[in-house]
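Why do we care about 3D structure at all? Because function follows from shape, and shape follows, mostly, from sequence. That is the central idea of this module. The next example makes it concrete: a single protein chain, its amino acid sequence, and then its structure expressed as tokens.
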Amino acid sequence: KLKQTLATGIPNPLYEATLGNFSRGESTNLTNNLSFYWFISDHLQLQSQFSVTKSDTEDNNFTDPLSTKYSSQDNPFTRGDLSVSSTDNFSWNVNAFLAYNNSIGKNYLNLSLGINAQENQTSSLSSQYRGFPSGALHSPNYAQEIYQKPSTNEGSSRLFSAFGTINYSYQNIYLFDLTGRIDGSSKF
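And the structure:
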């Protein structure tokens, strides 16, 4: 059997490697993007984009009850701990943009109108357990107690904006620009 500590009193990494300690994580991410272009005429076009993203993550960290981390603890029912956390995220975003470009003689006009809308929803859950009978039995079902109160967070945000620009030039010397934008968000 490997010694738990080296002669210097430092935990033996070879001993720890024989235990059931682990740190595992999983992540899934799905994104879908769709673009649409419509050339209505030579001077007028519509562009739009839509995207959806769904992502999930899960992390599990376990320390075996025989770990040297617990060598100073006398109570065997508090040895071994497991932390579990998960996060779910869903978001979508849409943009629509109408552009008009035309040149008449020495005049050039560029007119643009657009909107943007988006939403993001997030939820997370984390919990910690302790007091496991062995490294092989690391499911929350085998824990002696829930060490810290489980915590959950939920959040949702939305945004809607509209914008417009006008660019006018005469003989490419005299320029006039006007831009406007308005935003509404649940974060304001």
